């Protein structure tokens, strides 16, 4: 890649090419993912979304946003403090994501119903807490939808004691097509710049939500969807929709 390619237009050109590839290549996987989401909603389930690091951006894209499905819940390592009574200092541990038992604790704090779907998001797909969450969900009978980079996960070793990666566990895998290391534009002399996984991940999340909503409509059901709280009546209307899932979905200021 030339020096001239490391530019705004270079990133736009390269990322749009990957986005088009994702749109075309992920059709069957998105359809399968939408089936899981629609089945969950139809069964009065909640979509439990979990990710760490920058994958939390995609969790927020799925759980509790305008135009998104109401029965969605964001799981976060911060739940250990917010709902689990842990000292806030626990979040200062840079190795917390590698600690055994963290995902199981987060699962218990969420107290999911059997029909809930778990959406686990990780670009590498090898982080210990990510793999543990997927395994724990499967062990408790939940379906698991993964959003990950197959290029990255295939290029790095497993670190979880099970020897498994997120893509090995999930019922359906959405490949964000990000390269190993996530950065898209190669730099002269080595290295790269500009992460891609959030951009392609948002596309996959919203394609899946759209397809799931279409399935619900085809079955004669109105999708339970949020309206922006910043339009008249939106906040009040959302509260009414949320009442059906009281105690099962969390909506904090963050």
How would you portray this structure in words?
With 254 residues, this protein is an alpha/beta fold. The chain has one domain (3-244): 3-Layer(aba) Sandwich (Rossmann fold), CATH 3.40.50. The protein contains ten helices and seven strands. It has helices spanning 8-25, 27-42, 56-62, 79-82, 102-110, 128-139, 150-155, 166-169, 197-218, 234-242, and strands at 47-51, 72-75, 117-121, 143-148, 172-175, 183-186, 192-195. The strands form two sheets. A five-stranded parallel β-sheet has the order 2-1-3-4-5, sandwiched between helices. A two-stranded antiparallel sheet has the order 6-7. Strand 3 (117-121), helix 6 (128-139) and strand 4 form a beta-alpha-beta unit. Helix 1 runs parallel beside helix 9 (197-218). The longest helix is centred in the C-terminal third of the chain and has 22 residues, at 197-218. The chain is globular and about 55 Å long. The chain starts with 7 loop residues before the first helix and ends in a 12-residue tail after the last helix. The mean pLDDT is 94.
Quick recap:
The protein is an alpha/beta fold and 254 residues long.
Shape: globular
Structural class: alpha/beta
Low-pLDDT sequence parts: none
Report the average pLDDT across residues.
94
The number of helical elements comes to 10
CATH T-level fold name: Rossmann fold
Radius of gyration: 19 Å
Domain count: the total is 1
Q: What's the SSE pattern?
A: HHEHEHHEHEHHEEEHH
What's the CATH class label? Alpha Beta
Helix content: 40-55%
CATH architectural arrangement: 3-Layer(aba) Sandwich
Question: Major β-sheet, in short?
Answer: 5 strands, parallel
Beta content comes to 5-15%
- CATH superfamily membership, which one? Glucose-6-phosphate isomerase like protein, domain 1
The CA-CA distance between the termini, in Å, is: 39 Å
Strand order of the largest sheet: 2-1-3-4-5
Give the tally of β-strands.
Answer: 7
Organism: Streptomyces swartbergensis
Pfam family, one: SIS_2
InterPro entries: RpiR-like_SIS (IPR035472), SIS_dom (IPR001347), SIS_dom_sf (IPR046348), SIS_GmhA/DiaA_subfam (IPR050099)
Keywords: Isomerase
């Amino acid at each position: 890649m030339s020096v001239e390619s490391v530019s705004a237009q270079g990133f736009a050109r390269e990322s749009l090419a990957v986005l088009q590839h994702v749109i075309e290549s992920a059709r069957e996987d998105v359809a399968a993912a939408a089936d899981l989401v629609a089945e969950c909603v139809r069964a009065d389930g909640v979509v439990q979304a979990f990710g760490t690091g920058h994958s939390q951006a995609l969790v927020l894209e799925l759980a509790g946003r305008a135009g998104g499905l109401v029965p969605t819940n964001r799981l976060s390592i911060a739940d250990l403090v917010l709902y689990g009574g842990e000292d806030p200092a626990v979040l200062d541990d840079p190795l917390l994501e590698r600690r055994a038992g963290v995902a199981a604790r987060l699962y218990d704090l969420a107290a999911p119903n059997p029909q809930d779907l778990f959406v686990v998001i990780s670009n590498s797909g090898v982080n210990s807490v990510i793999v543990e969450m997927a395994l724990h969900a499967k062990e408790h009978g939940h379906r698991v939808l993964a959003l990950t980079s197959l290029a990255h996960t295939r290029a790095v070793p497993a670190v979880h004691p099970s020897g498994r990666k997120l893509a090995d566990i999930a019922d359906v895998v959405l490949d964000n097509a990000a390269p190993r290391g996530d950065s898209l534009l190669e730099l002269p002399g080595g290295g790269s710049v500009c992460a891609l996984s959030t951009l392609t991940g948002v596309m996959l999340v919203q394609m899946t939500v759209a397809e799931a909503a279409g399935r619900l409509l085809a079955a004669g059901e109105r999708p339970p969807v949020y309206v922006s709280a910043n339009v008249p009546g939106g906040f009040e209307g959302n509260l009414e929709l949320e009442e059906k899932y009281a105690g099962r979905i969390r909506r904090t200021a963050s």
